[in-house]
Structures are given as C-alpha cells and as structure tokens.
Design goal:
This protein has two helices and four strands. It is α+β, with helices and mostly antiparallel strands. Strands 1-4 form a two-stranded antiparallel sheet. A two-stranded antiparallel sheet has the order 2-3.
Length: 62
C-alpha cells in the first residue's frame, strides 16, 4: 500500500504518528510525515488508523 500526506492540508495535530508510530512520524514543525511510502501488509492496519484519525483528511492510501 502507498501512503502519502498532503503537506498543505496537514495542520500538525499529530494524531497519525500518535496512533501509528511505525508508519508516521513528525517533521521539524510537528506535521505528519510518512516513514516509508510503501507500507507492507504488516503495517496496513496502522496506516489506516492513522489516516482515519486525521482531522484534515490529509492522508491518502492507495
């Protein structure tokens, strides 16, 4: 699964990396950042949880 974050939409709430720390991390400004854009099967559920908890819907899974 491919994971991406729209940097213009992200407001830095931190829910993605709080809920799925193996998929997402924070950049220097506290906005979400994807650790590895290609997520393996073992992390798909975490990627979905992070995306579903984003208030701005800034995370795209494909």
């Amino acid at each position: 699964m491919h994971v991406s974050i729209d940097n213009d939409a992200c407001q830095g709430h931190g829910r993605c990396y709080a809920m799925a720390p193996e998929v997402y991390t924070a950049d220097d400004e506290g906005c979400g950042e994807v650790i590895d854009a290609e997520v393996g099967e073992d992390l798909v559920q975490q990627a979905r949880v992070g995306a579903l908890n984003c208030p701005e819907s800034a995370i795209t899974l494909s």
